[in-house]
Amino acid sequence: MPALAALVAPGGWRARRGAAELDVRLHGLLPPAKGQPPGSRALSVRGYLRLHDAAFDIPARQASFRDLNVRLGLQDSLWRLDALTGQVDGMHFRATARTLYLLDYLTGQRPNTRITGQFAVDELRLARLGELLRPAGGAAQQRRPAAEGRGSVSLLPPGLQLRVGLRCGRLVLPTDTLEQVALTVRRDARRTSLSGLSARVWGGQVRGRASWPGPAARGRTAGEFALALRFGTVDYRRVARLVRRSLLARPRRAKPDAETARLQSPVRKLLLLANGRATCDIGTLLMPVGENLRHVRLRLTKAGSSFHLPSLYFVTTSGGAGFAQASAHVARGRLQSADASLDLRYATVDVQRLLLLLASLKPDDDDDDEDDAVSAAAADSAAAVRQGRATALLGGRVLTARLQVRAERVRYGALSGTDFRLASRLRPGEARLDDCSLQAFGGQLKLRGRLQTHAVGGRHPLHVQAQLQRIELPRLFEVADALSFDVLGSDNVRGTMDCEADLITDLDSTFLPAVARTSGYARAEVQNLELLRVTALEQALRFIGQKKTSHLFFRPVSTQVFLDQGRLLVPRLRLNSNLSDLEISGEYYLTGRSNLYVGLNPMQALLGNNRRRVARIRSGATARHPDRHLLYLHLRRPQGHMRYQVRPFQRRQQRQQQAQLLQEYRRLLQRQPIDTTLRLLRPPGR
After folding, report:
1. How many structural domains does the chain have?
2. Is a pLDDT exceeding 50 seen at residue 383?
3. Cα–Cα dist 540/581, whole Å
4. InterPro entries recorded for this chain (predicted)?
């Protein structure tokens, strides 16, 4: 081989080792020297060339060939390569092929060449292969079609016509790597097609076909694809990052140079420029938080710049089932708009886990670079989501969606219920809670409101209005017990309540509210109210006797209450009980701290017929006019679980406190946009 390199094209290649066996017949004129006109007859070359364990370099292409063995049959411009084995730039290959005008093409003497045959490669770096086969500068390079520029999907040079079968252990693309690849490639000036495609990508299997127009295609012919993907277990965040980088990533430079444009993902170009369909089956989709998805099946179609997801089915690890549809519009490589609908059905749904699941659907806004800093940041972000620090709930500036959830049973923190229904509309930046209802506390609970989907300081502001109907008070106060509120226990109260409330709070990183960040207003109607062994009343009215104060019956009660970050402000609560007319005002903290004034008529309490009053209340008899001449007691407790400090004859102090409460109401309404009209609960048109 070194001797042959010194004789044939000296300086064009450097032989390292190997032997060559030649049986070649030449007939005609030798190629003219540089600057001389070509002859009238081409040189005819017939015979064969056999290489044994050849190793040589081609400096002009920075290519290194090693362990090359081949029998090359020569018939002018038609070459037959039999039992070709070796490696180029570390890529091991085997092939049997035919080429036409290959040498003239590589040297820039002809604009095209044709290769047919079967190739097997352990690893094929497609961008490097394109560099190796790119023709030298000359007439062919000057006649390069303009259509092979910015809009081209292929990484291969123009003029390279193919009809080859390919088996490849690893096919390395600029942004993707496929493994165990098998396909047939057909390529000419009008079209490139891939058929019989089978490969492993992202841990799954892909089969199908694809094609796209060549530079000589007439009209506005679009590419086509039909793919079927199947995965076992897939990490959602990894797939979301790969899809985002492969399909939606754009060069960070405002005007990418030709090299950067050429190395962009061909998968991205194909899917953005082509029309077609794809199906995908996933055994298990591992979500960052919440619950995982199983038996995921989806269909995708694309026409022009529009993507359509006609069906997406899945089940969740907690027993839910979902169906989704979606559409999206892409322009200039950017997602311009997206709309989706999601329908979920559960036997038992945990709302907190559901919100965490929805929040984890939004991929991180990390850069497209693969450097260590970005990878570390992505790892930190993934850990944050796994710990519940989700930053967005189906966020984004272009997504609109409709969400419907139904469940036989529901849990949300300490709250549980049945017959859960949820209908919500998601818009950029917010989720509208159009209708949410469930059976809870022996009655019905309805909600309407708005949730900000973009987190502010790790929290999601929430404004909601609630309607509670026929609520059983003992069951309501069971939740208060579970939340460790120092209020009435479930065994201290009886009766039912209808209530309407306006609440302003924010959900933390685990999508749970906190009383310390909650303000609101409520008005309630209470029926058949009974209080049993209430410590505050027993301590305040101990001069009356525990027998009368341990069990109180009340006529229907109407009240209004303000909530200010764990503090209840009671402007004036008037009660008619079997003991006496009562009036309560002041402030009470859910930790047990209190500053209350209780007005009552001691003579009614001491001298009244308790049994007769209880009977009249139970029978619903008309109440007499309330007594306006009440004695006011001041009940104060600096901390929970302490005895109340009781002071009598506090009417003047009670009026002063009411004036202070009025000022606090005004400040609260100025500080928070509390809606005391509860307009969201009103039917449309009222």
Report:
1. 2
2. no
3. 15
4. AsmA-related (IPR052894)
Residue 651 lies in a domain: yes
Residue 219 CA: distances (Å) to CA of 79, 271, 426: 35, 19, 41
511: left (phi over 0), alpha (psi -120 to 50) or beta: left
In a domain, 405, yes or no: no
Take residue 128 and report the two structure tokens written for it.
């490097």
* C-alpha count within 13 angstroms, C-beta hemisphere, residue 585: 19
Q: 347 is written with which tokens?
A: 């036997």
Which residue carries 């969400």 as its tokens?
403
What is the pLDDT of the chain when averaged over all its residues?
83
CB 553 within 8 A of CB 527: no
Residue 381 pLDDT class (50, 70, 90 cuts): very low
Q: From CA 475, how far away is CA 490, in angstroms rounded?
A: 7
The partner residues of 95 in beta bridges, in order of sequence, read 84, 119
Strand ranges (DSSP E) for 214-320? 223-235, 274-286, 293-303, 306-316
Buried b (16+ CB within 10 A) or exposed e, 225-234: bebebebeeb
Q: Are the CB atoms for 52 and 19 separated by under 8 Å? A: yes
Helix H or strand E segment including 260: helix 258-262
Residues 542-576 have pLDDT tens digits of 778 777 888 889 999 999 999 998 899 998 888 88
65: Cα separation from own chain's centroid:
47
Report the half-sphere exposure of 403 (CA within 13 A, side-chain side): 19
Instruction: Say what the pLDDT of residue 363 is.
Output: 53
Return d(Cα 76, Cα 28) in angstroms, integer. 11
For residue 357, with 0-12 CB atoms within 10 Å meaning exposed, 13-18 middle and 19 or more buried, which class applies?
Answer: buried
For residue 683, the one-letter residue type is P
Containing domain of residue 504, as a range? 487-661
67 dihedral zone (left: phi>0; alpha: psi -120 to 50; beta): left
Residue 331 has what pLDDT? 80
Q: Is residue 328 part of a domain?
A: no
Please state the rounded mean pLDDT for residues 632-638.
89
What are the DSSP calls for 366-386, one per residue? --S--SHHHHHHHHHHHHHHH
pLDDT above 70 for 479: yes
The CB-side HSE value for 547 (13 A sphere, CA atoms) comes to: 3
Residues 37-54: tens digit of each pLDDT: 766 667 788 999 999 999
Evaluate the CA torsion angle 273, 275, 280, 286 in order and state its sign. positive
* Pairing state between β 399-412 and 334-350: parallel
Dihedral of the CA atoms 102, 108, 112, 118 (nearest 10)?
30
| Burial call 37-68: b when 16+ CB within 10 Å, e when fewer | eeeeeeeebeebbbbeebbbbeeebeebbbeb
The two three-digit tokens of residue 194, written as one number: 């891939």
Task: State how far the Cα of 341 lies from the Cα of 312, in Å rounded to an integer.
Answer: 10
Which class for 498: exposed (0-12), middle (13-18), buried (19 or more C-beta within 10 A)? middle
Asked whether 155 and 130 are in contact (CB, 8 A), the reply is: yes
d(Cα 676, Cα 686) in Å, to the nearest integer?
16
* DSSP symbol at 60: G
Output the DSSP codes for 172-239. Answer: E-SS-EEEEEEEEEEE-SSEEEEEEEEEEETTEEEEEEEEEE-TT--SSPPEEEEEEEEEEEEEHHHH
- Do residues 273 and 397 touch, judged by C-beta distance below 8 A? no
Position 360 in a domain: no
What stretches of 528-573 show up as alpha helix (H) in DSSP? 535-540, 546-549
SS (H, E, C) 409-464: EEEECCEEEEEEEEEEEEECCEEEEEEEEEEECCEEEEEEEEEECECECCEEEEEE
